[in-house]
Amino acid sequence: MFEHLTIPSTEKVRECVKSLLQFLQITAKISGAHTVEFYTQDVWKNHVAVSPESVLSVFSEQQKLQSGCKGAPDISKIFSKATEQLVDLEAFVEAAQYHSLINMGLCTQIEELLDAFATQTTEKPDKEIRTDQFMNDKKSHEVVIMAKLVEGIANYYQIKQVIDLGAGKGYLSSYLSMRYDLNVYGIDSSRTNTDGANERNRKLKKYWQVYKTNARTTSKAQKSDRKKERSLPTNACLDTNADQDVSGDRGADLREKMPSFSTLCVDDEISPISDSKDSSLCTPPVHNPDTVDSLLNACSFLEVLPAGAVELPPMSESVCKVLSQQEKERRKMENIKTKNLNESRVYSPLTSYVTAETQLHDLITDLEDSIMVGLHTCGDLAPNTLRIFVVKPEIKAVCSVGCCYHFLSEEFDSLEEDQTDRSWGFPMSQYLKEKGWHIGRNARMSACLALERVAVGQGLPTESLFCRAVLQVICKEVFGITQRSYSIVPHRENVMKIDQRVGKIFSKSSNFIDYVRKSLKKFGQDDSKLSDQEIMGYYEKYEPRRNELEAFNRLKVFLAPCIEALILLDRLCYLREQENIAWSGLVKLFDPVKSPRCYAVLSLKQP
Q: Are residues 263 and 271 in contact, defined by beta-carbon separation less than 8 angstroms?
């Protein structure tokens, strides 16, 4: 199968990395600039010679963003050799597009993979789960696509066990177990997430139980109605108004017989269900025509659950109440075995902090041949997922979508406090290790930006960024507080200053004055040194220069796909350097507007 998949040579991957490094090196002054210090260090004047309006206009021209590149651009003319300022905006944009993954020609198409695994033949239209019933649109989009790919890999390897690292609330795990009947272990370092996932399991099982009970009641009622119809004389004429809409009455009957799904789902979570038999399990009928449609959609979701996915009600009512003690013990043991078997089909949330050295056998006692997955695994967890895949013979395949690049640890970053021997997040490949390359936190923050979202008017919190930059002017001029500085340069040239972080104060502030005072108190400063008028004076002074900040952030957004490409290509190079890998590639799984971190690192061992 692997020979039929498109696979760029390792040499081509390294050539792309080499070209990418050259581009990132010359644009480091932009990607590595800290927005906080934008006004205090006069970033726009020092680094950009074009007008802010010209930069902002590029984003208003959608065709320019999507035009792609005809050939390798000349990056030498982007910046002035005399002033080191950006002077050729068009060359900058073309080079940024050229060095993005989508234009490098290194990605394998998801359709090609699905065709290779023949997953499209396993789908049944009448068995689709309405995922929008229990997760939002973004998460539904991600889960359905990734689960389809994982199911195809599982079929190819004849594997039933999946390990989901960084499982979070268990959306992907629960979908894989319910939709494809896979035995999934969802591992997350947060006890809160694990407890939440267990609670979701319990509620899903309860809802399935209620659905089955009411379905049996409805079935009996329908049989009774059919018997009555058969007992009528053949010439009987029922009093029926031909103009009457009976669909509402039937909907009312259905509503009375089954619980409203809307009472069980709130936002993305299934709302609590009381353990009391006469509580929310028996909801009053809701006289809303839309409720029936919602309920039927819920039924279509529940019908795909595997037969043993939930606990069924005891059948003690249908057997003789007088049983011997020996028979009671025998039946008790059988019930325990059946329950354990049924529970194994619903995914198992586990709490553990996973590193490259984690022993899976200590977490999963019945570990067998498995697929390891991670949907938006944070920081170092994504590279550690790949390391576990390489060293564990039981893991036959890995599909990892990383996120939160700003949390990656870097081996050659002198800002890292812990310089002991450890598994670093970047670089992973020997190819980049030999170059001693590091990115820097500011640039990794830039990599988290979403070009496609910004292009359609989403994504950048311009007001909070502006307020933070003006706050820094106050901190420097009045209180002498400086901000940490990062850049993409070899680690020996890096410089560190004192770090001061505000956090999420802006969202909790009523206005700029409130924001400044709360921030100064967090820094341990006396905010009474400034009057409200003085604080607003700073805001009004820099308001005319707001467009400079917005334009500079657009330049950083253009570089985001390039920095992300370096991180992902490093992971691909690492996998290509291993001896026990049959195939490795990068796959664009998701719509980048819906899910900006849309690329998966996929790797397969020989069956």
A: yes
Task: Decide: helix, strand or coil at residue 162.
Answer: strand
pTM: 0.74
Return the ∠ at Cα 213 (arms to 207 and 217), rounded to 5°: 140
Least confident of 124-128, 150-154, 456-460, 470-474: 124-128
Q: pLDDT: is 448 or 334 the higher one?
A: 448
Whose structure tokens read 């989009």? 141
Region of 89 on the Ramachandran plot (φ > 0 left; ψ -120 to 50 alpha; else beta) = alpha
Angstrom distance (rounded) from CA 93 to CA 81: 19
**Sequence-ordered list of residues with C-beta below 8 angstroms from that of 411, at least 6 positions apart, any chain:** 424, 426, 427, 433, 438
Q: What is the pLDDT of residues 503-533, one digit of tens each?
A: 889 999 999 999 999 999 998 899 999 999 9
Per-domain residue ranges for the chain?
Answer: 2-106+402-604, 197-227+246-343
What are the Cα distances from residue 67, in Å, to 64, 103, 140, 558? 5, 10, 30, 14
Q: Are 311 and 209 in contact (CB under 8 A)?
A: yes
Which SS3 state, helix, strand or coil, does residue 330 take?
A: helix
Q: How far apart are CA 514 and CA 419, in angstroms?
A: 40
546 CB contacts (<8 Å, ≥6 apart)? 462, 466
The CA distance from 219 to 311, in Å, is 21
Tokens 């354990």 sit on residue: 340
- Residue 437 has φ and ψ, to the nearest 5°, of -85, 140
Q: Is 415 exposed, middle or buried (0-12, 13-18, 19+ CB in 10 A)?
A: middle
Tell me the range of 24-33, 286-295, 315-324 where mean pLDDT is highest: 24-33
User: Nearest Cα to 558, choosing from 485, 440, 460?
Assistant: 460
- Spell 309-344 as b/e; 16+ CB within 10 A means b: bbbeeeeeeeeeeeeeeeeeeeeeeeeeeeeeebbe
Q: Is the confidence at residue 227, as pLDDT, over 70?
A: no
